[in-house]
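Issue: ligand-bound run for adenosine monophosphate - logging full I/O for the record.

Environment: standard queue, default settings, no custom constraints.

Inputs:
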Amino acid sequence: MCGIAGIFNVSDSETLVAELLFSIQHRGQESCGLAARNERGNIFCYKGMGLVKNVLTEEILKKYSGNIAIGHVRYPTAGKSDETNSQPHVIELPEGPHLAICSNGDIINYYELRTWLENDYGFTFKSDNDGELIGRLIAFYLLHKKLSIEDSIIEAQKQLKGAFSSILIYRDKMFGFRDPHGYRPYVIGTLDDEADLNGEIPSEGIVLASESCAFGIVGARMIREMRPGEIIRLEKGKPMTTVAVNAGKTQHCVFELIYFSRPDTKVFGEKVYDVRKKIGAQLADYDKNMGFGDDTVVMAVPDSSNFVALGYAQSAKLSFDMGLLRNHYVGRTFTKPDQKQRDEGVRHKFNPLPDFFEGKKVVLVDDSIVRGTTLRKITRMLRNAGAKEIHIRIGSPKVIGSCYYGIDTPTRNELIAAVKSHDEICEYLGADSLKHIEIADFGKILHKFEDFCFACFNLEYQYKPEDYHQKVNRPDAK
Ligand code: AMP
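Outputs:
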């Protein structure tokens, strides 16, 4: 998973992009970077491993200033976690380094397209990253087919399979484009207070970002979401223009609403916090006959399930409390390479309040179970702290398949729900009971249920199995 941001034609755009990236830092903490183009036509790119505040410092931002800028935060799903795989990528064209790109999402036919460009057209790749492939594919149409930049993006968009929410700088223009299914989020805003959001919107001051929660930090207003398959062009002195819309069946990632996006984001026509509270209410509905009462406390595994637990407690009229503290200085435990490190990470991350759990029935709410590491550890912690009963409620259906569109999910045999029965999972976690929300009940929660991808929960993937085979077998696959 990753986050993207871009700003068109305002002074200090690089500083604004760094701020946007900071507010979508939750989308990727491994590395970050930005590319800025100045009025003289030079593109500068700076990237590094680590968090936005540590990499894109004031000193760096002074050196890399420009009026058009794009940026990226990375959470690796394919390709190694190193600086070469960080984004943006600058693609050097014969007339100068005039193309910079960043993208969020995984390309399923990455390897096929890369090999074709390398073997048949002598392209050289500097990284294993999907964003670079998209940039080089566009460069192929520009250089070898002599197409305009607009047509080059259209052709590349047709050839790419998978998920991409992308921003491109080409000469003095900026383009935003998205895969035909709209897998990953993508929003458009403006810094222009005067812009009439229903009429023509000037390109100057347009802000592109993965999530609308980024707009507040730079004082931007939301215009709308990028449409699935849409390509927009931003050009000095001209309005923002839709160049083309090459839409397929909409397949928004429901896991963005369940876990990934920030609760203050509006995306896929939904308010994230609202969806999470409704998930909680639905879980509470399953428990009407559980006899939970005054001795029961509803608790979240902080922070991703806070709103689900709150929704549960409000709907069930039970007390909501915060019995678990989370140490925010512990990095991602989920991506650690072996089980011992993941177990340790959970122990470092969470701690129960003293004398809180003695004799209590706990409804413990989490957003998802993947390998089962987090909840197994927490359940033990709460038992040791005196909890009488622990009832685990999960704000997602059972994760039974890997994601090929940009969420980091382990292979199928590591997914606990793919290899164990319901009762076995409950026993493994050490819980008194376990319930997940059912896929069908999202029909009551989402405005357009049919527009969402549930592939990691129902294995109904958009592309054919052989397409995934390629992705899984790409040499850099984890
Ligand atoms: P696990 O401990 O393996 O069962 O993973 C579930 C926990 O990891 C939940 O608490 C989630 O908040 C979190 N999680 C789920 N999916 C992801 C993901 N793709 N990347 C990082 N964390 C995740």
